[in-house]
Amino acid sequence: MQKKTALIRQIKSLAGKKSLSHPILIMFLAALCIWAISLRPPTLISAMASALSDTYYTFNTKTPSSSLVFIDIDHESVKEFGRWPWSRDILAKGFSSLSKAKVIGLDIIFAEPTEAKKDAALAEALSGLPVIGGIFLNGPRLSSLGEDVYYHLLDSSLMQAGKASLLESDRLEAPVSPIRESIPLLAALNTLPDADQRFRHYPLAFWVGDLAIPNLGVQMARMALHEDLVFTDNGIFMGDRKIPADARGSIRLNFYRHDSYASMGFTRLMEDDFDPDTLKDKIVIVGVSEAGVSDLRATPVGQFPGPLMHLTFVANLEDGSIPAEIYGWKMAGVLFLFCLLWWPSLRMQIPWQRMSLYTLLFSGLYGAGLGGYLYGGVWLEIFYPGLWLMLAILTGEVHLFMESRAGSEALRSAFSSYLAPEVVESLIRNPEKLRLGGEARELTLLFTDLRGFTARSETMDAESMVKLLNAYFEPMTHAVFTYRGTLDKYIGDAIMAIYNAPMEDDDHAFHACLSAICMLRELEKFNAEHPEHEPLQMGIGINTGPAVVGNLGSSFRFSYTAIGDAVNVAARLESATKEVNQELVAEKNTGKDIPVDYADILLGESTYQAVKDRLPCTPLPPRPLKGKSGFLAIYSLRWREIKEALLEKHRAR
Q1: Which spans are transmembrane here (predicted)?
Q2: Which of 137, 233, 372, 503 has a CA 20 to 30 Å removed from the CA of 96?
């Protein structure tokens, strides 16, 4: 049965039940803005995004291959041989122990000449070793270094770089002769920090003039694998390995725990019992970790010696753990996906359901990012969809709040004229209690009327009559509201009230009777406060029974009311109070015994049955009521016997 009526439609309209396209359109535009920001993030945004996703690294359980070894010029080495840089004959002695290594990368630049004899000793120690020397992209211009440096770089450069978009430099520092001549290949040592000065990315190569010079880790991999790094239109490859690099030819390093790298101090190479076979077929990098040399890098997993940045690339390449970063159109797809996942929250009216969905979305977002990193080989900067999701939730909650507020105002506007303020607020807090429409239910109806007021009004001017009625209606209406009643209407000097609608009341008959008692007591106070007028008298009829309650009228004018036989009987009981009181007075004057001295409140049978055990009631002779066939049982409520404590106890809180 369709129970929604015109009032419901009006409330929905007033409540702002507008198309959901408004917040969705706003968030679609927000997604476009966030996506655009993700393409070229400002420094602060980039730092926040990285800090959030850096937590992935704590879940990395992989360790670098034991074939990768860091020969560390560490604090103990500096204590042994003195402050860095050391005499080159010392280094020569140590390098002679690396003869069995597969590849030796030097994260050291011998850019300045020292004693010729010592430089020659180092050059001789390096000669014949599979060593890669370092250059640093700074210092003098390439053009000023001579053809021999250029051709050495040419031999070290990538042959298939094409038109790759790489970082560029026309300046470099290179090892001095004769050390450079003893080194087969050169490689760049530069690593660049992100916006927050943490090192996460690793440039594969640099343009130095017209030469694509690989970074040290790349050069070590080329020598170890005998494969070249190739830039193609379909991506960057080393052999059959596709390397997920960004537009500038940099990859995101997948860091391991600092203590998981195989390493040994440089002094170990100098000890008499050191066996060169220990490093047989190992990929070795030699560098400095001594803090005073400042070759430390701030990374997401702590301070890292610079040489480990290069070794980490080789390890990532070897175990295939270089993560592919999600950006560009892929990031747009992620944002669109979360737009679809968030949209159902706009349909959820219960806050805890929305909060559960929000928690699920945030947990799912982080879980997707972490799962993609651990098992999918992808890196999702969850900051951007997370930022969008926060804005979406804020927008959605504001949208729902405005709808709720508009709905509350609509309910308040619709019901405040005939419901107690406390009841209206309860309806707003718990709208599920509201049952509107043409609905059949059991009600208690209360009708009141002032006796003889029509004749009296003919002797009063309009202003005095309106003033008197307003003063009278104020406490009467309050009495209805106090005991959970609904004011249906004023009819001249009469009042109609409904109990058990629109909000349910399990004790509606009792509460209607309490309202009637309160009304008569308030009338006594009113008469005492207005001695200039003849005292007013009132009759009240109360009846309980089935009726149809809802909104009656036309589409442009309607009112909330009740209709049915129970309503008519309540009205007839109120009319009968005058006649019954007159009959009681007449019988008393003739000396007859009368059941009760007054009958200001008359109850129908159902009302009497509901309250007879709690309120003093007296049965009166059954009588015919206008419009009803037969005789109906009626009862007088002896309201003067009710104590104030009972009225106070049952007031609506």
Answers
A1: 326-343, 355-376
A2: 137
